[in-house]
Specification:
two-stranded antiparallel sheet
Length: 142
Amino acid sequence: MNKEITECKRCGTCCRKGGPVLHRDDINILLGGHINHSHLVTVRKGEPAYSPVSDSIEATDKELVIIKGQGSDWVCHFLDQNDNSCRIYGHRPLECRLQQCWDNQALLEMVGKDTITRHDIINPDDPITEFINIHDREPCRP
């Protein structure tokens, strides 16, 4: 907890640590078209991802759907790096709304809870489902 900061200074530090994990609360943002499938990446169970709890990269204990990074970096896809603003601020995901670098308790309490998977965001009869299931049977490489 940083007692010197009491409000967002738009420094972009949190956005440079990677895009947020999506939760069930974020489904309406997806349905509204503010975030689409091309903005997302899946981290399978056992693959490495940034953990705000440990402030390090570690193997995940479940599948996570995350907003992808820009280029080869993990900077959130929606961060405008010219002025550290969020291009979807009015429709930002739950973790972004909870993020407060001066007091991260609310965010830490949501880590791993009520997250979505690929199966939550595609139609059950979509042909890609078969390929997802095949991919899931392959061992992940940490």
